Amino acid sequence: MWKIVLPGISMIGVTYAFARYSFGLFLPNISSDLNLSESQAGYVGSAAYLAYTAALITASIFISKSGARHIVLLSGVTAILGMLGMAASPNFIILLLSAFIAGLGSGWISPAFSQIVVQSLTPDLQDKGNTWINTGTSVGIVLTGPAVLLFSEQWRWGYVLFAVLAFGSVWWNAAALTNKTEDSAAPARLKFGKKLLMDARFLIIASIGIGLASSIYWTFSRSYVTMVHDNTTAESAVFWIIMGAAGILGGIAGATISKLGLAKSYRLGMLTLSASLFVLTLPYQASIYLSAVLFGISFIFMTGLIIVWGTRQFPDSPFIGVSIAFFSLGIGQSIGSVIAGLLIDGTSFPFAFIAFSIAGALFVFCKIKISETKA
């Protein structure tokens, strides 16, 4: 299992933590150097989310035609190009376009690896394999934390470093995921249409809720702790590292779902995610780190949960289910990132985080039901 899982963790870390979520880590310094407003920062964050959703739309087509292995490698290449573009960005427009390119890989990688897992691992290991690969986001975040200490004033070199590490991950995956990985089973084809979307409607609603609630945290949490809690660069880096380290525990999603069931696991995770936003607004230093722990665990747990949900919804074509789930997640994040930036500009950081916490809590009441869809 680990011959597939470990390179998978590294590529998820590259495409999510390095290429997408590190923008929030470097945002204070980027905003200062390029004179970005909070609204412009929200637009850049949204560009990455839009790229993510656009890639998810094409993921099933590309995987069916080119194979999951090739899409994994393509994901890494776009991450490298996007990060190098961000490193060289002289202004808001170039930064936005580079963020879009960097975000493409995160849309392709999860559906591609869900297909590789089904074709490479036995059924009893697939939930565990998928949820552990998903922890790559947290592993990457742990690595990005020290980068802000090493490159606090030179964020461009931070992106160059991430691009170099991304190249190493692409090389590893090219060696580990041979063409034989895809020989065991051919992905089934499903006709995309109204029935397919209706079967997955509860998965779609739940995923949008997760994306909406989490978007403000990924884009603005570090700005919050530096501007509202007056944390130093080192303190905010520790906050980021704690969030990433806690997220690794989200890898227990597969085992938790087996024990509690999908519905109870979803409601527990959504409540924890919403609570993490509210806790960040409390005027205590300890609350910052508690918030990081709660968010790290709950976000990785919830994204692992929708991977499991998507693969169970479409057992013959798991990449379809994961694409739909993460597409919906991306819609929530795209909308949420823009709303968060505008809300912060118009009100305040605490008001915006509390509003998003309440919005996330409302999605706890989403119905959890699987209507298994086969080719």
Question: Which keywords apply here?
Answer:
Growth Hormone, Chain: A; mainly alpha; 375 residues
Question: Which SSEs are present, and which pair or pack?
Answer:
Layout: H1 2-34, H2 38-66, H3 68-87, H4 92-120, H5 123-134, H6 136-150, H7 155-176, H8 194-199, H9 201-227, H10 233-248, H11 253-260, H12 262-280, H13 285-313, H14 318-346, H15 349-362
Question: Explain this structure to me?
Answer:
The protein is built from 15 helices and no strands. It is mostly helical and 375 residues long. It has a single domain (2-365), classed as Growth Hormone, Chain: A, CATH 1.20.1250.20. The relative contact order is 0.16. The mean pLDDT is 86.
Question: What about the largest sheet?
Answer: none
The strand count comes to 0
* Secondary-structure class: mainly alpha
Integer average pLDDT: 86
Secondary-structure element pattern, one letter each = HHHHHHHHHHHHHHH
Helix fraction bin: over 70%
CATH class identity: Mainly Alpha
The value of Rg in angstroms is 19 Å
CATH superfamily: MFS general substrate transporter like domains
Described by the principal axes of the CA atoms, the overall outline is globular
CATH topology: Growth Hormone, Chain: A
CATH level-two architecture: Up-down Bundle
Low-confidence stretches: none
Could you give the distance between the termini?
27 Å
Indicate how many domains the architecture comprises: 1
Helix count?
15
Q: Give the DSSP E fraction (strand runs of 2 or more residues).
A: under 5%
Subcellular location: Cell membrane
InterPro entries: MFS, MFS_dom, MFS_Efflux_Transporters, MFS_trans_sf
Organism: Planomicrobium okeanokoites
Membrane topology: Multi-pass membrane protein
